[in-house]
Protein 1
Amino acid sequence: MPSLIILICTTTIASAVMWKTHIYAVPAIRPTLVKSQIYTLVNNRTLVDAHLNKLQNAGKIRLLKLEDETDDSLGIMLSEDYIASFKDIEKFTSIVLTEQRALCVNKSTLLKTFSDAQITTLVQSGALTARTSGLWWVSSPCLGRFLKAYRTGQRALLAMLRRQRFKELLLSDIAKRELGKGAILGYMYHVLAHLGSGTLVSVPTASGPLIRLRMG
């Protein structure tokens, strides 16, 4: 069991560093993992959730709500990348990394530290996104750009498989195809996310993993 916990941590941190140096060619997007990707790599969702919460409570990462119908999951940013996505609002990053670690925050809590005008600035900057009246998701100024690329790639991969007669492709065949303009995160990023969220399944074959659209 301890080795599994170490694997989760290593996967989370090492993958973030890898994507930072190799995948993210667009400076406006900060390295962001998706929890469903870790579900694909580690077959124990309860332990993954517990360890991610532990990392967030330790101030190592920030969990962010992803509002996307293809994947009801969470985004994960290393604290250093989360802080780097902000300008001139260090007080906010300090609070949401060390005190207010929930996915959302209400107005009464914010008013303990910020004025109404400052809250408006946080919303306008992308640090907060509306959930309901007086309640916001904790976000990042870069999350909108990430979500645009993420949604584009997620939908493109599903569309690619739906065009196939049997709604499936070998992973090696997916690697040879283009997901299209705007899908800048790479095919494996989306394969892992879809497998973890359950929209796709992977079937072992002699020719390698067969990625199939989950039906029903």
Protein 2
Amino acid sequence: MRLGQAYFDALSAQDSVVIVRSQKASIAEQLESAKRSFDVGQSTITDTNEAQAKYDQAISQEIAAQNDLEVKLAALEQIVGHPVTRVDGLAHGVTLPPPIPADMQQWVDMARDANYQVVLKRLAVANSQREILKAQASHYPTLDLVASYGKNSLGAAGAGNFGGNFGGNFGGNFAGNFGGGFGSGANTISPHVPAAAAELGN
């Protein structure tokens, strides 16, 4: 593939040099004709200057075409591995085999689906669409969910023992001590009640 492309590039550049040189030769004849006409007084100096300008332009085009040919030949040399001074064109009357498939639309479809530049552009479009969706999503309402999870280190047996011991000890001690003290206090205070009543009666 690279060899074929380099060959046809060099062949096209070589043909361009031939065409430019042919044009330069034609312009050179026009320049000489303009000079002769000016010498015999049949044309003005302006006509001669215009012909000279066209010839100078043809020379610059020839130099550019020759430089392009050298670049194309150098690229071909890198592929074939030996110096190349010129390339031979196709023989006259040669018949090239038709492309397979012969349907132009199939080649267009393959170029559209397999061309890496087209694939890169598609990926760029898809990425841009995702960025648009991301930007739109930033304006949507948000909802925050907070959850917590804990684990009690006391088992069922530990909880029962703690509750039973605490309730039994605290309840028994409190009821016994407080109840006993309250009952003793009642026996001590009650003898004074009749004496106070007697004094009120007198």
Protein 3
Amino acid sequence: MSVRRAEAKAAAQKRAFEEAEEEEKTANVEKKAKVVDATSFATYGLSEHMPPTAVHLVHLFSSLEFSLTTLQLYHRTADFPTIKAAVESSSKCTFTIQEFARIVTVYPEAYDLSFTKPTDNTLPELCIKTASLSFPKRMTTFCTALNDKLAEFLASNPTADDFEVPEASLPPAEEAMGPTPIAQLRSQEVRHAAAAAALTPLEQAAFLAKPLPKELEGLPSWLVKKVRTAEWQRNVLKNNAADGANDRFEATLPQLCDQIQAYSVFTGKTAFELDKLVQNLNKAPIPDKIKEQIERVAEMVPFWLTVVESDKTRVVRLNPKQRYPAVKQIISQSVKLN
């Protein structure tokens, strides 16, 4: 008898659960169908033939715009979890990332998308920033674009019942997290492949013809060749890195000269002890190469900057009679030629 009662109780609980679940589904459908009349947005030019699902998207866009404006007024970061809560509170509808992607499909230039910085405990979140257009203009633009998509759909379909806006491709969160270890390894492989490609047959033959180190003696020829080729690739990569550093050394000279000129104007002086000048150029592009770069500038434009010895110290002198814009142009042209 007790078993039957337990079974009856379990069956009753199951029915109650199913009924509650069905009521929740119905409530969600009613929420989504709250705005089904296109005339609600007739002010912004929305077509009266727009199907309810698309009108619902307009309703979400309107709530999204309102929420973004509110967050901006309170100087809050508009990451997607915050936006989702605000939109759902405003529209009384669910708002998912998929629905946001459909909004982006209709109005791709509406938002600047970025990510929050990831931390040890949090993943990057999508951030949404709007342009400076007014709300009515943005609503009108959205409705016009949606009308165009509906017209395009109706050109090949008899009714608008099946009209759906596809989801746009949103930027992946991996962009904010940086390359994965696997991606870094693949990048390294590409660099090695590029180094190998730089090896001409004659250079390869000359390199492999060098005396064989003792540690490689007795190994199979294919293995020796592989080891020697890898050694060559390392040398090429090292040389390429050195070339890149030299290029940056030259390319940042105009930027350093800007700082020297600004410091001269700020202090009202045209002569400085080299060591003190280096200390005060705290935004130099290559902090550990300031002295070398100043020496290089002195070689390029000695009529504007010179480095002289004075009382056991080195002094940088600027010629105030030279117009700095002309000096910078000469430096920039010299850098390009090099």
Protein 4
Amino acid sequence: MNFLPRPSQRAGERAEQQINQSGKPRGIFRRGLTGALAAAAALSLSFVPQGSPEAQAQSSMGSLSSSAGDLEDLAGIINGIVGGLQNGGGGGAGTAPSTDTRLSERSFTVNGKTRKALVKMPKSGLRSNLPVVFMFGGWQHDANKARSYAGLENTAAGDSAIIVYPEPVRSTFKGETYPAWGGAPYATNTTRSADVAFFRQIVSTLASEGKADRNRVYATGLSNGGGMALGLGCAAPDLVKGVVGVSGAYYTPTVSNCVNASVPTMIIHGTGDAIVNYNGGSRHGASYLSINQVHRQFAARNKCDVSKAPSASTKGNITTYRYQGCAVSTVVKKVEGGGHTWYPSNPDAAQESWNFFK
């Protein structure tokens, strides 16, 4: 009986906007919920009116088939949903923490354009000369989405720092429009320099209000946002005192033509990342650097001895690489088998970022 649609290849191409989790729920919970979702999916397909948008969307997913492969495809999707529920969503479909009076949406004007950012003041009630932590989300993620999975507010940063979630410019790529950071091939309506000017304006405004300490500004981010964090360290080492890229997309324009100055840098990346390969490659018609290339590039500007291989130490599934003789810390944490994700644990991306900054 033909009632299960085969997921389209296009859905696979959009995996870049999804945040994966390494943990997989097992046992009765997984089997029970998987079965319930499968039954619900079958029933929903049976009762969708043929002329509805839902029916049109289903028909666009490809021809109907009753093969075992279709069942496996659907099971894979359902298992992914179950995994997200079991692991707290990991940010792919997360819900932003509840709104409170410490969170505000601010507008900033730079070069005649007004852009926005979510600004979260610390829980402690401190209001002056505070460190600033920028969090940049992945491609297709707006500020609220980035906040929903970042977890920074649950670290000590939430008690003592201003956490800023800037809003990316929406760019149209291959007929679809999504938020994106400059330097990536899909960031058609912005550039790295335009985004850096925006970040400078945010810091300048918060500092002029007496809230921010210009000497304690940091940046972290996921995927396209991870590339932007290191791109900020590359283009404006005078502005930031530390950057962290998590599953970063280091497209050549993002981390090239750098200012020759040092900035503490950490990269967290998984060897199983199928979206941005650890060893480099190309995507969306543009090349991106390998993790080793990015590490060496930043190490050279950080006055490390790049004539020798970095030291390596392994604990569990994480191998930490450090160049020697550096003016400032220059670290890679290689996550064995890790995917394209903002890691919730082993390593905890939010906690690792804050530990590196403080």
